[in-house]
Specification:
heterodimer; A: about 110 residues; mainly beta; 7-stranded mixed sheet; 4-stranded antiparallel sheet; about 50% strand; B: about 120 residues; about 0% helix
């Protein structure tokens, strides 16, 4: 069974440029999560989807961050424009549903903003 | 609100010895789950063990066991017979099983474990 797939694995951009990250969850998983992990810190939830509905986006900085999961499968997280402080690892995770206690994580996208 | 505290930035252990990684938590949720994840240098988060707040027995998974002390709000991870491959960052996490923290994992700051040969 394939795990959570994320791309790209690494991205370097200049500040004020846009950037997008893609995530494909494990097949059959209805719940998808995006987490932000700063260097030396634990991940922090940005947004949680149940199928195509964003059910928890309270931690998403909506002035520059957006996310979508149009068909309830794969998802895209976008930052526009990027700032130096956005340099971090962006992790995607999925679970069968929100009742499932185990979340499966992807390898993450390491973003560097110069 | 939920909070996880890991007070050990780094721990060292000799190969084949046991090690305990500390975790304390705070929550107002009446029921919750506690987790430990391993993050090697490659970056992926690997689920290790889960403990429900109403579980009577401490969880065990192979060489991993969770020492759950509800009254002290602690959920320490014990790794027995350490191996070189155990060297990684370890995160304690929790989620509420209802209310506003439902479905949301809250992580601690992590502990870097180094296993010496």
């Amino acid at each position: 069974e394939a795990g959570v797939v994320q791309s790209p694995r690494y991205k370097i951009i200049e500040k004020k440029q846009p950037v997008a990250f893609w995530c494909n969850p494990i097949s059959g998983h209805n719940t998808l999560y995006w987490y932000l992990q700063n260097l030396g810190q634990g991940p922090e939830l940005l947004i949680r989807y149940e199928n195509e509905e964003a059910v928890d986006d309270s931690q998403l900085p909506k002035d520059r961050f957006s996310a979508e999961r149009l068909k309830g499968v794969d998802s895209t997280l976008k930052i526009q424009p990027a700032e130096l402080g956005d340099s971090a690892v962006y992790l995607c995770a999925s679970s069968f549903d929100s009742d499932s206690y185990e979340q499966y994580f992807g390898p993450g996208t390491r973003l560097t903003v110069t | 609100a939920q909070k996880i505290t890991q007070t050990q930035p780094g721990m060292f252990v000799q190969e084949k010895e046991a090690v305990t990684l500390d975790c304390t938590y705070d929550t107002s949720d009446p029921s919750y789950g506690l987790f430990w994840y391993k993050q090697p240098s490659s970056g992926e988060m690997i689920f290790l063990i889960y403990q429900g707040s109403y579980d009577q027995q401490n969880a065990t998974e192979g060489r991993y066991s969770l020492n759950f002390q509800k009254a002290r709000k602690s959920a320490n991870l014990v790794i027995s017979a350490s191996q070189l491959g155990d060297s990684a960052m370890y995160f304690c996490a929790m989620r509420g099983l209802g209310g506003t923290s439902y479905g949301k994992l809250t992580f601690g700051q992590g502990t870097i474990l180094t296993v010496h040969p």
